[in-house]
């Protein structure tokens, strides 16, 4: 029999059999996950063992690159245009009928209000039509827990989430229990790299046409000299785990303007030293992230917050795709005896799979499951867990010397 001739249940069984998880349970619970918090419209159907039965993703990246940044009203209309198709595609690929789903999980916080609204409105209509339970999801919790879909990992573990909208360090104590150790005081690292890439006109660089700002910086940095420019590492004298990228971004922008005058280049042209600026920027951002993470590890150790056996740092969010940043973080985890785990790049950036997995985690523990009749609101601003950043600041941990420079 050809795969295309299989009915939904048979196709699902074949996928589960191929994954070696076919006999784990007779009637697996199935969750549809929906993500629209920023600029990706994502959907996925997962079973409770973490097998992805079907997924679909529409990225708005190139449209926002053309516009020079995310315009919320544009993001909203693109979500509106694509959400039905993306969800239907994920269902079709999974071979699951809506009636077979155990629940629907959707990002309702934090994110762009106009984008969250589309995902929530669609989901509420869907669960009411099919009379399914609804599981509201916190986007950053989903990033933090994705790794547990890929391998067994017990709580507690330390998590570093670096993306276009967030830079934060937290201790994950349970699926809905986090201690916030550090957060960005201004902009997120991904936002900062995106703006530097834009200021460098990397969109016009032949190798970077379809890349996000962070991806373009990483690519160009590979051929650049990270020592050619020196940008000061943010907040070196503040012994906490918070981040700051606004001052760094300003410094890089000033340097770009200076070089543009020196080279006499027109707006939109790429500087001859763009690769060196990319390499030096990537190094400064990476070392800031690494130092704050190093302090968070030492803080957790001083308070006995991490397990003796296999203490782990999980890194996720779009910027965690960056190989150079991963390598610098590996220096930190090697020096402190932690195990470093990063999901594959595809699961670090926004997607529907991570939302469906968070739904599965909640379903298994019976937490946060709502009836399809309940009124649910989205929340654009929603901190992650209990904020103990002032306790971290009071501990004022000084870092031992650690050589963080590697080849870009
Ligand atoms: O998690 P994500 O997909 O969306 C948010 O929730 O923000 O992250 C997107 C961010 C963008 O700022 C993008 O430039 C950055 O992740 N990014 C990278 C890389 N790939 C994506 N930054 C640095 N290096 C990369 N390879
Ligand atoms: Zn994200």
Name the CATH superfamily assignment of the largest domain: ATPase, nucleotide binding domain
Order of helices and strands: HEEEHHEHEHHEEEHHHHEHEHHEH
What class would the helix/strand composition place it in? alpha/beta
Low-confidence stretches: 1-7, 16-25
Q: What molecules are bound to this protein?
A: 5'-O-[(R)-(carboxyoxy)(hydroxy)phosphoryl]adenosine, zinc ion
User: In the CATH hierarchy, what is the class of the largest domain?
Assistant: Alpha Beta
Mean pLDDT: 93
User: How many domain modules?
Assistant: 2
Q: How would you characterize the largest beta sheet? A: 6 strands, mixed
The percent range for strand residues is: 15-25%
Characterization of this structure:
The chain is of the alpha/beta class and 408 residues long. It folds into 2 domains: 3-132 and 348-376, Nucleotidyltransferase, domain 5 (2-Layer Sandwich), CATH 3.30.420.40; 157-343 and 387-395, ATPase, nucleotide binding domain (Nucleotidyltransferase, domain 5, 2-Layer Sandwich). It is 43% helix and 16% strand. The chain contains 14 helices and 11 strands. It has helices spanning 8-18, 61-67, 72-94, 113-130, 139-145, 147-150, 189-199, 213-221, 246-263, 274-302, 323-336, 345-348, 352-365, 389-395, and strands at residues 30-35, 40-47, 52-59, 103-109, 134-138, 157-162, 167-174, 177-183, 312-316, 339-341, 386-387. The strands form 2 sheets. Strands 10-9-6-7-8-11 form a 6-stranded mixed sheet, sandwiched between helices. A 5-stranded mixed sheet has the order 3-2-1-4-5, sandwiched between helices. Strand 1 and strand 2 form a beta hairpin. The protein starts with 7 loop residues before the first helix and ends in a 13-residue tail after the last helix. Bound molecules: 5'-O-[(R)-(carboxyoxy)(hydroxy)phosphoryl]adenosine and zinc ion. Residues 38, 163-165, 190-191, 193-194, 212-215, 218, 317-319, 321-322, 349-350 line the site of 5'-O-[(R)-(carboxyoxy)(hydroxy)phosphoryl]adenosine (KG4).
